[in-house]
């Protein structure tokens, strides 16, 4: 199995998971793959990267960080490669672009922590869902500032990523309580702020995140608890401005029930969407690496950072 197949399988089977982590793993795989390419023309080299990129993008459909990261390194490479003469310089340029993306995306998580921690007050009770590096960065950064915080972690059925968060926070000395997903409303009156990550941010400021997030947002709104999202700017999907929808991944029913149970209950249909959509009106703010934005301002941020140009839509 080559590096592309291994990374594809690891992402699909969620051995590598989390929107930021899968983006970095895919870019790293592309970088390693580029070293193995034995082609003599720029066009062939670029085409091979594009094909490999499309293959990796198809490993999981929802997290926009994955196609955005791949498009970012390949489109920058296509711009730069026009000036380059030989194979070694193509490889070196592509390697630099990949490493640059990986470094920037790790720094972004750090910066989100620094910025987001300012919004956490001493004595706050927080709630987080699933396992988001960006959300945990905010919580841990507040904890390092000696803010006295308590955190509820949902277990996050069916894959239980909430246990990873609870364990990580607790190992870092944070006061953590693990709860089942359906207990969120029971505890919400005690919660000052919810803080979650995102797999995608749409042009109208909605976020796509782990299944259950939108129910938590609903409970937070009812209880007047703040609902904060921590996400790197490369999770914004400009394509949604033109009407494209984020595809919600439907995962195997065997993540929920055993084969044995299903064989005894053949008429039961099982549905397992991995993500849901939280509309902008349920979100107080989105914390990014460059600052805190109201959800409705997200396209302006994207335009500013990535030079997004509105284009003419062809029929
Ligand atoms: P970071 C995860 O998806 C969760 O939905 C999490 O909230 C989101 O990615 C963002 O995670 P999954 O891969 O990029 O567990 O902030 O399905 O780490």
Describe the structure.
This protein has 315 residues and is of the alpha/beta class. It has two domains: 3-111, translation initiation factor eif-2b, domain 1 (Four Helix Bundle (Hemerythrin (Met), subunit A), Up-down Bundle), CATH 1.20.120; 113-312, Rossmann fold (3-Layer(aba) Sandwich), CATH 3.40.50. Helix content is 46%, strand content 13%. It has eleven helices and ten strands. The strands form two sheets. Strands 3-2-1-4-7-9-10 form a seven-stranded mixed sheet, with helices on both faces. Helix 7 (161-171) links the parallel strand 2 (150-154) and strand 3 (175-179). Helix 1 (3-12) packs antiparallel against helix 2, helix 3 runs antiparallel to helix 4 and helix 4 crosses helix 5 (87-117). It is globular and about 65 Å long. It starts with a helix and ends in a 9-residue tail after the last helix. The model has no long low-confidence stretch (mean pLDDT 95). It binds 1,5-di-O-phosphono-alpha-D-ribofuranose (RI2). 1,5-di-O-phosphono-alpha-D-ribofuranose binds next to helix 2, helix 6 and strand 6.
Beta-strand fraction estimate? 5-15%
CATH superfamily of the largest domain: Translation initiation factor eif-2b, domain 2
* Head-to-tail CA distance between termini: 41 Å
- Give the beta-strand count: 10
Give the assembly state of these chains: single chain
Can you write the helix and strand succession as a string?
A: HHHHHEHEHEHEEEHEHEEEH
Return Rg in Å: 21 Å
CATH topology category name of the largest domain: Rossmann fold
CATH architecture of the largest domain: 3-Layer(aba) Sandwich
- The residue-averaged pLDDT reads 95
